[in-house]
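Structure first, sequence second, as always.
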């Protein structure tokens, strides 16, 4: 934003200090002047007493002028020094802001001293830089992973086409089937990235949503997949209404239930889905049986493209964005997501969302 040049804050403060001192000095001298004119008896200025009143005023006026000049110089010099001392923290904050504008997110102000307005501003600025640096690192890591994931199906497609072109007797049906599989996976990945971006931007219309109905809709959709893998889905709970986007919340529940089905025991596993209503919180809990996982491994499941290879089944492994999308949707709705390993194996996922007013 272009602005016209103006006086610096330090100069403005200096002039303010000097002006205040000058006004205080003039008021003090005015009091003395009035005192001499009104309250000193006339007899003190008679011939017997020496100089008269006018002589005293003539002698007093030059001293007043000299004193005012001294006060002005003192106010300007002292105000300049005081203003510089007071604004030194602001200068450090300004320099840090310029470094950030140039792309340096690792710089910190770390302003010394006791708590005051400038220290609060510096501490908040440092905290903001820490969050920005972490977010920037996460975005760079996500972009690198996304580029790799998107490049993989393209490279596979190119390889299949090269092999088919050099093969004198290509199996067209097999080639089409493989290309269809690779293309479907690329489409799924692209749609997942778009959905993740939409959740992060919070560009959706909010309305009351009954989580129990969303759970019913998601489980009915995924029931054939569960039956195919010999997985039992058990739902329970009560009507609980939150505020948000029905499509996004449906995607959240679908991802959680799908994840619970895919990463389950090989034989006769179980998925439990429950909703609970509290005073100000709508709770969704999804648990499943499965392999024993460590808490350290569980903490990585919400990272993009982290598939948890220690517990992945051979089919329907996904693109590694299921729980990352769930995390973004939960945060976009002002909720919290908690993942914990179950005793005896499997995973327990708890989603807490604000109850609709």
């Amino acid at each position: 934003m272009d602005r016209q040049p103006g006086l610096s804050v330090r100069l403005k403060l200096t002039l303010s200090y000097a002006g205040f001192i000058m006004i205080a000095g003039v008021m003090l001298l005015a009091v003395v002047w009035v005192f001499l004119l009104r309250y000193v008896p006339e007899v003190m200025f008679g011939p017997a007493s020496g100089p008269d009143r006018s002589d005293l005023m003539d002698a007093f006026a030059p001293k007043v002028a000299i004193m005012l000049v001294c006060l002005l110089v003192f106010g300007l010099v002292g105000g300049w020094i005081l203003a510089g001392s007071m604004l030194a923290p602001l200068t450090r904050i300004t320099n840090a802001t310029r470094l950030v504008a140039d792309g340096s997110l690792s710089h910190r102000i770390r302003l010394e001293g006791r708590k005051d307005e400038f220290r609060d501003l510096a501490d908040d600025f440092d905290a903001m830089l820490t969050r920005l640096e972490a977010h920037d690192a996460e975005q760079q890591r996500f972009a690198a992973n996304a580029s790799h994931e998107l490049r993989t199906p393209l490279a596979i497609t190119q390889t299949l086409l090269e092999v088919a072109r050099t093969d004198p007797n290509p199996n067209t049906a097999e080639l089409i089937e493989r290309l269809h599989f690779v293309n479907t996976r690329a489409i799924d990945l692209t749609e997942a990235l778009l959905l993740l971006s939409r959740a992060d931007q919070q560009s959706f219309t909010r309305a009351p949503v009954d989580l129990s109905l969303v759970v019913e809709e998601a489980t009915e959709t995924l029931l054939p997949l569960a039956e195919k893998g010999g997985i039992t889905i058990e739902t329970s709970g009560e009507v609980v209404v939150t505020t948000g986007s029905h499509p996004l919340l449906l995607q959240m529940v679908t991802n959680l239930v799908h994840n619970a089905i895919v990463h389950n025991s090989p034989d006769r596993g179980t998925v439990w889905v429950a909703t609970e209503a509290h005073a100000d919180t709508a709770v969704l809990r999804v648990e499943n049986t499965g392999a024993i996982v460590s808490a350290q491994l569980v903490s990585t499941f919400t990272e993009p493209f982290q598939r948890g290879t220690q517990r992945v089944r051979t089919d329907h492994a996904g693109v590694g964005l299921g729980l990352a999308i769930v995390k973004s949707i939960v945060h976009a709705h002002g909720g919290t997501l908690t993942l914990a390993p179950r005793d005896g194996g499997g995973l327990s996922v708890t989603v807490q969302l604000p109850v609709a007013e």
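Margin note: The chain has three domains: 9-104, 121-200, 206-354.
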